[in-house]
Amino acid sequence: MLGWKRAEIVAAMAMLLSLPASALSTWTGAAGNDWFNPDNWDPNGVPQAGASVLIKGTSAVMLTNSTAQLADFSIQNTASLTFSNWNTTLNAWNVAIGGGTGTVMATLYHAKSDTSVNAGNTNRIFIVCSNLVVHTNGMINADNGGYRGYTNKPGKGPGGSHMTNGAAYGGLGGGVPGSNGVVYGSSNFPVELGSGASLGDGSQNYGGDGGGCVRISAINQVIINGVVSANGSNGVARMSRGGGGGGSGGSILIACGVMSGLGRGMICATGGTAFVISGVSTNYSAGGGGGGRIGVWFKERYEYLGQYRLNGGPGGRWQGSTGEPGTVVTGWLPDFKVSSTSWVAKAMMGSESSQSVTLWNQSQDNQKNNLRWELVNTNDWVSPSATNGVIVLNGSDTLVLTNRSAGFGLGSHVGYLQLKAISDNGSHNFTPEPLEKTLQIRLEVMELTNSLSYLETDIMEGFNASGQTFEIWNAGSDSFAYRASGDVGWLSVAPTGGVCSGTHVVLTNVYSTAGLYAGTYTGHVTIAALEGGGMTRSIEVVMRVMNRSQLSMSPLELRADAAEEYDASNQVFRIWNGTKMFTLDWSAASGTNWLVLHNTNGMVAGGTQAVTVGFATAGLAKGTYQGQILVNGGVKEYGGVAAWDSPQAINVSVTVTRPVPELGLTWTNMELAVTQGVNAPVQTLGVKNATQRYTLDYTVADDAQWLAANPGRGSSTGEVDGIQIGLDTAVLDAGTYTCVVEVAAFERKYWVSALGSPAHARVVVRVVEPGSGFKRVISASRGEWADHVDVRWTAAPGEEWYEVWRGTTYDLGFAEKIAEVVGTNFTETTLTPGEKVYYWVRPISQTGSAGLFSTNAAGWYVLGAPDMVLASDGVFADKIRIGWSAVEAPEGVLYEVWRTLVSSSSLKSDAVMVAVTGQRTFDDIAPVVNSIYSYKVRAKMSSEVMGAFSAGDSGYLLGTASGVSATEGLFMDRVRVSWSAAAGAEGYEVWRGTSRNSQFATLLGLASGLLFDDLSGKPGTEYYYWVKSKNVTSESGLAGGARGYRASRAVNLEVRDLVWLSGVQGAGLGPDVVSYRVTNRGAAMSGNSARLRHAFYYAPVAAPDSGRLMLSFDEDMALASGASAQQRLNATRRAKLAIPDPGKYAVWVDIRPTWPSTLCDTNLSDNAASRAAPLVVRSGAGLCYRAMNDYDGDGCSDLPVYDASAGYWYIATLSFGAAHPLAWGALWGGAGFEPVRGDYNGDRASDLAIYGSGSGKWYVLSGGGTILAWGLRSMLSSVPTPGWYSGLATADACVFEAATGNWYVKTIYDQPAVWGLKWGGIDFEPVSGDFDGDGVWDYGVYDEQNGMWYVCTLSGTLIAWGLQWGGPGMEPVPGDYDGDGAWDAAVYSGASGKWYVTRMNGTVLAWNVSWGGAGMAPVSGDYDGDGIWDLACYDESSGAWHVRTLAGAVLADGVSWGGPGLEPVK
Q: Which of 461, 567, 1264, 1434 is the most buried if burial means most Cβ atoms within 10 Å?
């Protein structure tokens, strides 16, 4: 590692600077010489990163591995540090060698290299630092640290010599050419060990060792005032023969920013001297060692004034030669720079982006060397424009890096590129260590996401539509610039651009529609990401420019008739909006005093309104009168601008005539029978005025003396008068008599004959003589008994006994006497079952005379039931065969075959007779497939003589497979076909086609069970499947036609947050609010892939596995990856979510892809969401969910403000972030009254209600103008707390008396529900609501001083006692903030604008949510109709409303409705 690897050193030093102030570690050597023995240091422990190290005295330290990154290193006195191993490094910010007191030498050594082989270097001195100083009493000594010299052997190392010659490295050794080594290594980058010399003869003569290796890499300055040496050692001669050659010098490589030193410094790598021991005579001599190599490289300055010594060593005394000098090279370090070593690359999901990196050669090299660079590695998402190049001195090169996001998820990804450069002077002989640059790239994968893909709105001609908002955000990491625009003239966007990050940005569509004609227009908003390769999103905008409302009426003429002194009957005309566009706001007036309008104004959108017209004609004289009604209509939503065809007039005429009543009688004919000498009972004849108007005078007359009517006159205005008709029939002889009663009537004042006058009532009386003749009654049992006939008759006085006669016909002439009986009954036992006969009786008197024959009576035994009735079970596909045994019966017996469903335990009213036959078998060809029937048979002789039914036997046709279904995208590798078992089937064929026509289907395979997997279909292709059942005798037709397909791609849908309100639902009634959230955790869904099936189920809580489908519908939901959307059901769909039977139920929704989507949801564990609490279904009406302050009944809270000084109400609905007026200046109240909220007539719309604390009275006005309460009395000086306490659909008037803690509740019908219930006290404020979700409100109080909540049900069940949630300055705002039907505790800090919400069980829903501020009042409610309460604040000083959901979606931010003096209704 050279000094120009600056990036690594800078990083290390940066880490060092971030450490605490360095601690001093002083060497003690108490446990030996090992640096890494913690006992050798004071304080105890091996020096760690950032430490300062001091070694002094006579210490000798061995360093066997690299040090930590030290702050400072200092060695003084005669201390020494020896490096062992080639890669052992001294790492320190500042290194000082020598210094301190005295002139003794502090030294750095390296251990002797292994010279047993020539394989390579094993030890060196390696220092990496920022600054290095070698003081005059300091030394870096690598002398003799190279390859070993030998005796009688060649010296070690690449330049090792032979015989007595000197060793070579930077220069040849002295001696005989060819035996004096070879020059090796790089002069510019010297990092080799010096080579050893040899001796030709003598066991005690040695060649010198080569010099060692010193390498210094310093970021800043190197100061050499002492010695840095890597000299070779001298040869040794201890015998009379031969001498030792000198070892070569070693290598010294210094790289730094500034090279400096005084003239006292010395850097040397000299060769060793050939040597002969003094006084020893020899004829042989040795050569000196060659010089070593020194390289000094610098970036900024060269200020070194010391010496370099590289001379070869002198030869021996006898023919010895000096070694050649070594090499020293000084020069400028190449300066390789890049424009940036780390940056953020942005790329849109699936897109590419690029960055340019500039590479410079800024070396001060006077040789003008080029830099050759190359890219040595890359990563998965970066493509470089080039992988290598050459940069001339002071020149540059550009590297373009293209970043690809394909295959990477959203978010940050970090990668590295390694650049390497070397100097290149063209001759390729300059090879310094490569310069390296590490480039860090953080790839930010982004995705432009928008909250919706479709917007629509309505606007009336001539007006600009209100803006609509949507949100965009970066679903990935980092941020990007964007631009937004519309593609048609009437559509623009604000703002038009900006920066988009993970925070949602709200954009507003601005509409310029005033110049558009009526019609439907389509435009598109395009949002374009301008970074990361770009990405666009489009929102379709449908603008419906509507015709204005049209005033339509019928009829346009009214005619009425009236009698003098009477008012004509009311008449009605109807008003409707002819275009059904917007709301028609109409008013009507008449200047005619005899015309009375019962309703003079109203509003109508899609329906009609009836206007009742009254006639005050009682004071008009006879004649014809003309009048007119004038009706004006305006468009409510547009400030009352005139509607089409407004105004219009209705012409009214009334004709006044004399009054004429109508006479009516309660009956007009009556017939009576009476015995001679007896008066018939009195009868009542009713006389009435059928018109029930005017006064009718009447008189009564008759034409018979035996009849008398009383009274004979009277009058009627509509009631029925009773006329008593007396019948004096006792004086009449036997016969028939008729009398007519006549009633004549007139109108009293004008004596006008009544309509229907005169009227007549006819009375017929039959008078008969006293006494009557005897009529005998005879009967015979008609099949009641299986073995006899029972004959019975009535007797007359004087009859002694009876003859019984019998015949086979009803002709007595063919009868014969069969018995003489004393008594009045006879038992016949001689007949055959089913044989019908006729019986007569004749009485015989005591004198023996015979009386008259009676009438006849038919009788018979019952027929027996057939045995062994058998019906075929699936044997035939086209008939059921029934057989039975014969019964005992006369010749000609027939059999009836009856059929009913097998579910009938006996023959029921749904049974039908399917055959009458004389045979004992029957083939029934009429049954329906997949139905099981029960058959019974009975014998009969005639329509009267029937036998008993046989026992039943069931039978059925060979069934077809029912419930055939095929999976739609459930699997990616198959379509699974399933069906229910077919009666009588022993196997099945599965057929497949590509259309719904089974004629084109082909056989796919056979199945013995009820499942079949089609593995051969193509993914994404729609197929249709049929199943045919078979047995050994027959086969059915094809059944099914179920659609199925294999999925082509995987997706992962998540469904959560099912809101279902209210929690109490009437049996047979649907819920009021249903919403849920769908999130796409997988691939983007759009086009056909957006189609989802939404299925709703319910199951009793006691049987959760018995779910039943309530509703299923298919709908598109385009969702980007990671996006979510809330689904709200409309009223039509909610009505289908009715549960018929009372009880507690679990309800849930299941969402899955369906055709034409070909996506497969591979994780179905999160596809369903259940209501958090069980749904309670009860008999009668349910408790509807009510959004507080919902004055138009649309399920969303509105914006109501009230002028307490004057009693005016101002109400607006919140839609698309704007206020739309519902009521402006409605007068209801005034000084001394405060507004209260609630629905007091159960129509699901809030009414105008006020409470007078001084009077304790309530006054309530419905939205339709009906007064619901006027002066409803409660308690004085109390806190009004209206709610639904009594369980009715109508709100109750409730007050909390703070002085006593008592609660008083009255229904709107003035019926006390609770009176004087104690709950709370003087320091409490009421916080009532439905805290247990049962649909009935509970009593709650809040103590602001300590933040305690106390809540109890009306029945006494404790919900909360001392729940700690709030405190001083915290205002309670209870409500249902999670949509589970049970209210939660919430508080709002007016000082900070912070909200805190918790469930009553302590689960925190919101903590420290900022929404509001000083001067703002909380007015919570459900402003978007999703069943979950929202956070809302009203600023009375400005009239601004601020509304957001608990999840963070802003519904209104500064919407203006109200102002000073207008308080919110809450």
A: 1434
